[in-house]
Structure formats: C-alpha cells, structure tokens
Specification:
Elements: H1 5-30, H2 37-54, H3 57-80, H4 84-100, H5 104-127, H6 131-149, H7 153-175, H8 179-196, H9 199-223, H10 226-242, H11 246-259, H12 264-282, H13 285-299, H14 303-317, H15 319-329
Helix pairs in contact: 1-2, 2-3, 3-4, 4-5, 5-6, 6-7, 7-8, 8-9, 8-10, 8-12, 9-10, 10-11, 10-12, 11-15, 12-13, 12-14, 13-14, 14-15
C-alpha cells in the first residue's frame, strides 16, 4: 500500500475504520478485571501500524503516548495488588511505547522503575539459585542500562553477570543429563559473554556448545527427529557466529535448509544472531536497538518485518554478508 498511492487512497477509509474498531475493543479489554496483555499488545500494535501506513504522524504519536500512559497506569495498579510480574510486563510495554516516539522524559521515568525492579529481581533469583531466571533478568537489565549509558562498562558488566548465571544454569542441565537445554542455555551464556567483551569465556563456552550441538545433530538425524534437528543446526550456526566463524555458521545454516523445511522464524533467528555479533564487534548501541525492534516484531510473529529490518543494515553496511545469506537461502541472483 505504501508503494501504491492510489491503492492507499482507496484503502484509507477501510483502514481508518479498522483503527477505530481496534480502539473500541481496546477500551473493552481495559475495563476487564484482568486485561489480556497479549490482546492489548495486538490491538495497540495494529492501531499504530495503520496510522504509520497512512502517514498520520500526529495520530501515531498521540496514540503511542496514550498507550504508554495506559500501560504505566496498569503497572501501578498491578504493583498495588502485589502482582509484580504483571506489573513488570506492563511497565516494559509503557517503556517500549515511550521509546517509539522518542519521549525522553517518559523513557527516563520508566527506565528508573524497571532498573529498580530488575535489580531487585536479579538479587532474589541469585539468592534462590534460580540461575536461568537470574540470567534472563541481568540480560534485560543490561538492555535498559544501555538506553541510559550506551554500550559502556555498565552494560558490559551486567552482560558478564548474565553470562555467569546462564553458565551455572547450563551446568545444572548438564548434570541432569539434558543435553538440549544445556546447549540452549550455554548459547545464551555465549552471547552474553560476547556482548560483555569477554572473549576468553565466549570462546570456551562456545567451543563446548558447538561440540555438544554437533553430537545432538547427529543423534537427531539418526532418529529422524527433523524438527529437533532443524533447531539444533540453527543453534549451531548461532554458536559459530559468536565464535567469529561466519563461514562455518553459514555452512551449518545451509545444512538446515537442505535437510529441514526452513521457516521465517529460522531466517529471523539467524539474522538476529548476526546482528548481535556485529553489535558486540562494533560496540554498537544502534544495532542493539535494531535487535530489540526485531524481537518486538517476532513476538507478534511478524517475522518478515523483523527480517526486513536486519536486511536494511546488511544492505547498507555489510553487503557481502547479505550476499552470503542470499546465496545460502537460494535467493542469490548469481
């Protein structure tokens, strides 16, 4: 539609009708005692997407601001009711909408709230030896700190903490004999250490992870577990990227495509891994912002939009990387 002015003009009344319909059902959902956050997110996203397509920038900013305030109010109410996790989810949404419109005061306010909640949560999870949840919380905390201070020592220190906790969680999975979750958690540790600038730990964890992934892939291939094989080969590619072995990672991705039906989710995850690798390599706050936007699309299963976002960076900054992906995926003009 955006590329066809006439079609956009014809569709305008229908799109506006859809936007106001979503606003009506949004109000109904808010009135419920326990609003469904996933539904609210879908309604809000659709409304903003419509105004974005129509070029209605004033309305886009108006509603994004209103959604941020709505989620902030919901978070406050959940805090009063001691529903901390629900409150955090609401505050995260409020933070995201403030970021969309670059509302500096709103971003600062929500960052302060989330830093406090994440910080306390991380301490609790570490004390309870819930290392997976501690790793997740430190990872989120690092991304909030990144918004305040940039890609600096504060961010890297928190990523180091995330890596250590993911590593502990992975060792627990290994002790329980679960190789799949061991590799999945070690992969999180590998990327946390990568973003922390700890090349030694990245290499050590990464080499162990790839070794286990090769073993898993062989087992799944032998048993004919193709879905599990696809996920394992994808993790293998991701792990190799973090080790600065891009060609080997692309080779693993090519094996996935040859043996398993590749999905948009696979393509998104490969590009997200590469963007995280590039963010660590260049200490780039901007690339991390793109990763967050990709994750936002992915949560709505809008994988095509997430892929397009990554392609924009590869095309302008890393054309050879884009060509490599196109060749592996069979889209190369050569």
């Amino acid at each position: 539609l955006s590329a066809n002015p006439r079609a956009l003009k014809d569709a305008r009344p229908f799109l506006l009708k859809s936007a106001y319909y979503y606003l009506d059902v949004l109000e109904e959902e808010i009135e419920r005692e326990e609003p469904n956050l996933e539904l609210l997110e879908e309604f809000c996203s659709n409304i903003l997407r419509i105004f974005e397509i129509l070029g209605e920038n004033d309305k886009f900013e108006k509603y994004a601001r209103e959604f941020a305030l709505m989620y902030k109010s919901m978070g406050d109410n959940q805090m009063k009711r001691k529903k901390i996790q629900k409150a955090i989810e609401s505050y995260e949404a409020a933070y995201r909408y403030h970021k969309i419109i670059h509302d500096s005061s709103g971003i600062e306010n929500m960052a302060s709230i989330l830093l406090d909640l994440y910080g306390k949560g991380a301490e609790i999870f570490v004390a309870k030896k819930e290392y997976q949840r501690a790793g997740d919380t430190f990872f989120k905390l690092a991304f909030i700190v990144k918004d305040v201070f940039g890609y600096d020592n504060h961010f890297m220190e928190l990523m180091e903490n995330a890596g250590r906790n993911y590593e502990r969680a992975g060792r627990e999975w290994y002790a329980n004999g679960n190789l799949y979750y061991t590799t999945k958690t070690f992969l999180s540790a590998e990327y946390s250490y990568l973003l922390a600038g700890n090349s030694q730990r990245t290499k050590l964890i990464g080499l162990n992870t790839t070794k286990m992934l090769y073993q898993l892939a062989g087992e799944y291939r032998k048993k004919g577990f193709m879905e599990e094989l696809g996920d394992t080969l994808l993790m293998l590619a991701q792990s190799l990227f973090a080790l600065d072995k891009l060609l080997e990672g692309l080779k693993a991705y090519k094996e996935l495509i040859a043996e398993v039906e590749v999905t948009l989710e696979h393509r998104y995850r490969v590009r997200k891994a590469l963007l995280l690798y590039l963010a660590a390599k260049e200490r780039s706050r901007n690339y991390l912002e793109f990763v967050e936007q990709m994750d936002f699309y992915a949560k709505r299963e809008a994988y095509a939009q997430a892929i397009d976002l990554a392609e924009l960076i590869f095309e302008t900054r890393y054309p050879e990387l884009k060509k490599g992906l196109q060749k592996v995926e069979g889209f190369s003009p050569e």
